[in-house]
From TrEMBL:
Keywords: Membrane, Transmembrane, Transmembrane helix. The keyword Transmembrane helix applies. The lineage of its organism: Bacteria, Pseudomonadati, Pseudomonadota, Alphaproteobacteria, Hyphomicrobiales. This is Transmembrane protein. The chain crosses the membrane at residues 40-60, 72-93, 99-119.
Length: 126
């Protein structure tokens, strides 16, 4: 299960990172104005970098020994969990775009997948 979670999350994060870097207006449809300031576009592109970095980390972690997964799994739980919490806030308050409902589900699924991975590892190591 961990290998699949690492693989799918790496592909997802790489897609988001590349979209932010190369298509920030299209990726931000409904949130980013069509006449966005160059500074905003530069900020969105800047945010794509860490997504790509975490994508590479997850991709490389998929074949690593299970005992070495703990820090990467915990980082993904924190990352996807906080993003899911932000999605919940945005959807519940009505501040988020309609597509945020889809991202909310995706981010919750990744959070639960990494939580399941963490829990299964603890039972294996006891």
């Amino acid at each position: 299960m961990a290998k699949l979670t690492f693989t799918i999350s790496a592909l997802y994060l790489a897609t988001v990172g590349l979209a932010l870097m190369f298509f920030p207006l299209q990726f931000g449809t409904g949130a980013v104005p069509k006449d966005a300031a160059p500074e905003l576009l530069a900020l969105l592109r800047l945010l794509g970098g860490p997504f790509l970095g975490i994508a590479v980390l997850n991709w490389l972690s998929r074949d690593v020994e299970a005992s070495a997964h703990r820090p990467v799994v915990l980082a993904n739980i924190v990352g996807f969990g906080t993003v899911a919490a932000n999605d919940i806030w945005g959807v519940a308050s009505g501040e988020a775009r309609d597509i945020a409902k889809i991202f909310l589900v995706v981010h919750l699924l990744f959070t639960f997948a990494f939580l399941a991975s963490a829990c299964s590892r603890q039972h294996v190591h006891r």
